[in-house]
Amino acid sequence: MSGLIGRKVGMTSLFDENGKNIPCTVIEAGPCVVTQVRTEEVDGYSALQLGFDDKAEKRTNKALQGHFKKAGTSAKKKVVEFQGFEEEHKLGDEITVELFTEGEFVDVSATSKGKGFQGVVKRHGFAGVGQATHGQHNRLRAPGSIGAASYPARVFKGMRMAGRMGGEKVTVQNLRVLKVVPEKNLLVVKGCVPGHKNAYVIIQK
After folding, report:
1. Is a pLDDT exceeding 90 seen at residue 85?
2. pLDDT, tens only, 103-152
3. If we measure between CA atoms, which residue out of 185, 187, 3 comes closest to residue 85?
4. Cβ(94)–Cβ(73) under 8 Å?
5. 84 pLDDT tier (thresholds 50, 70, 90)
6. Which 8-state DSSP code applies to residue 62?
7. Cβ–Cβ < 8 Å for 78, 200
8. What is the pLDDT of residue 13?
9. ∠ CA 7-10-14 to the nearest 5 degrees?
């Protein structure tokens, strides 16, 4: 799927024609530079490698400096490959937010906020004991029994237990594009997208 790299700006809300308040996310999408063109003959598949967000040259190793110099652009912090572009693009071409149109649906991927080590109530939505009756004084948010008996005498893989939560790649599908602002490279999509403010996001058509 064709797409762009962007940065999450934050959340706001808009009113539709019926006066309904719609929560939405503002994304700074592009402009992205074509830093490599993958072809069937050379690479075995067709794709475009896009770069986003300038990076200091002193923080870029020599190999990457040469890679970006070939494309005639400055070093980039985020580089992602996309497939399925309808138009032909050459090395060094710039792709802007005008790739998207209002009313279409997009998929947005990003790394979710890390929440550290969490218990089963927060991580998996367990209800806990609820009311502290029947002598329960410290079991309100405990997981309860996790195994069977002397057979199978083990805990099955995939058992929902406490552990690290968040910090994973998450894709939210079919978010409607509410507004495209080309002069500011902004894309406004309905609903929320994963990640913290200023997190890199990947928007795919």
Report:
1. no
2. 999 999 999 999 999 999 999 999 877 666 677 777 888 888 888 788 88
3. 3
4. no
5. confident
6. H
7. yes
8. 95
9. 120
Measured CA to CA in angstroms, residue 136 lies from 13, 93, 102, 122 at distances of: 44, 66, 55, 20
Q: Which segments of 112-176 does DSSP mark as H helices, in order?
A: 120-124
Q: What angle do CA 21, 25, 28 make, to 5 degrees?
A: 140
The secondary structure of 30-55 as a DSSP string is: --EEEEEEE-HHHHSS-EEEEEEEE-
Q: Are 105 and 174 in contact (CB under 8 A)?
A: yes
What is the C-alpha separation between 135 and 150, in angstroms, rounded? 28
How high is the pLDDT of residue 128? 79
Q: What tens digit of pLDDT does each residue of 4-39 get?
A: 999 999 999 999 889 999 999 999 998 999 999 999
- Exposed, middle or buried, 172 (CB in 10 Å: 0-12/13-18/19+)? middle
What is residue 132's predicted lDDT score, i.e. its pLDDT?
Answer: 66
User: In the Cβ-directed half-sphere of 161, how many Cα atoms lie within 13 Å?
Assistant: 9
Dig out the tokens for 166 from the structure: 């968040």
- d(Cα 26, Cα 10) in Å, to the nearest integer? 6
Distance (Å, whole) CA 52 – CA 29: 9
Give the CA dihedral 37, 101, 12, 24, nearest 10 degrees: -90
What is the rounded CA–CA span in Å between residue 105 and residue 96?
A: 17
Gap between the terminal Cα atoms of the chain: 6
